[in-house]
Amino acid sequence: MFAGFARQWTPLLPLSEVTSKPRREVLAGEALVIWRVDRDTVAVLLDRCPHRGVSLSLGSRTQTGRLACSFHGWEFDSTGGCARIPLNPGADRSRRGATALPHRQIGGLLWVFTGFDPDEEPHVPDSLTDPGLVRFVHHETWDAHWTRAMENMLDYPHLPYVHRTTIGRFVRAKQRPDSVLHQKVETTEYGYELTPWLDDEPPGATLRWYRPNSMLLNTMPAPKHLRIQIYCIPTEENRVRMLLISTRNFARTPAASPAFDLFNLKVLHQDRAIVESSDPVEVPPPGREKSVPSDKATLTFRAWYLRNLKES
User: Which residues are listed as membrane-spanning (predicted)?
Assistant: First the structure.
């Protein structure tokens, strides 16, 4: 299960999109069913009924919050336990449950663990849990392997080229024909923090990698707060959900939000054609591509992925 992405915490969807209607979602190749049991409780099961293997997402939520299979009416609670077997009141239900997955509700997101016994909790930036920040949330699906999308989000050297009309114009303005990009990569408990700078210019933005599949870009020094976080969530084979979350502590009026939101979407969409054109689709082993020193941040991620996740 979850080939190439096992035993990882990842957001799946914004919690606002989880309703009482059972919903099928694919995470790292595995079909899941999610639904809201009540206002405070969400359930996540493998999308297979243990009785005859049909999709549980075809079923419906009962008045008590259980999920009733559409085939024979078997009912399952939020833990996957079998609560009712119609026409068989004496049947032993203890060994006829569906399979539940560990999940959390944090920062307005539904987090799912791609395994059954997590040994740590999700690493969640404080920007996602601060209710005082203005927030924009958007997601879309690209035809790409999640590792290519992740490397792109960690790749600082492409800014003055792919994003020359948006966030890259600030780098491009300082770049000379003989400029050198320096990068400091510091290991953290959640992944790493990258500090890039050009020539003798002082560092500006900082970037964080949150294992396994997120990038956080901090574009302004305190006390101003403007952060862009992107999660590259594997869904079906060679498809990735790009979950974008931006937060800020200024320009709080509703009239200001459309300009910020459209700008963030423009930046995201400038990456799409590049990422989807990658060949091979998945990041390859060392030596298959011709890397240079400015690839330090992406190679750090690639080495971790090939060593820890690819065969998981």
Answer: none
Claim to verify: residue 297 and residue 202 sit in the same structural domain: yes
**Closest to 276 in 3D by CA, of 232, 306, 244, 312:** 232
C-alpha span between 243 and 146 (Å, rounded):
12
In terms of domains, do 60 and 130 share one? no
List phi, psi (to 5°) of 82.
-80, 115
What is the count of structural domains for the chain? 2
Residue after which a domain boundary falls, among 86, 101, 116: 101
Per the omega criterion (within 30 degrees of 0), is the bond before 223 cis?
yes
**Residues 178 and 258 grouped into a single domain:** yes
Q: Do 87 and 164 fall within a single domain?
A: no
How far apart, in whole angstroms, are the C-alpha atoms of residue 152 and residue 143?
14
What residues make up the domain containing 47?
19-101
Looking at the structure, tell me whether residues 264 and 169 fall in a common domain: yes
266, 123 contact by CB (below 8 A): no
Same-domain pairing of 97 and 131: no
DSSP code of residue 175? -
Q: What is the pLDDT of residues 58-109, one digit of tens each?
A: 999 999 999 999 999 999 999 999 999 999 999 999 999 999 999 999 999 9
Q: What is the pTM of this model?
A: 0.95
Q: At what angle do helices 257-276 and 146-154 cross, to 10 degrees?
A: 120
Report the SS3 class of residue 11. Answer: strand
Q: To 5 degrees, how large is the angle CA 65–CA 66–CA 69?
A: 140
Q: Give the span between the Cα atoms of 196 and 204, in whole angstroms.
A: 8
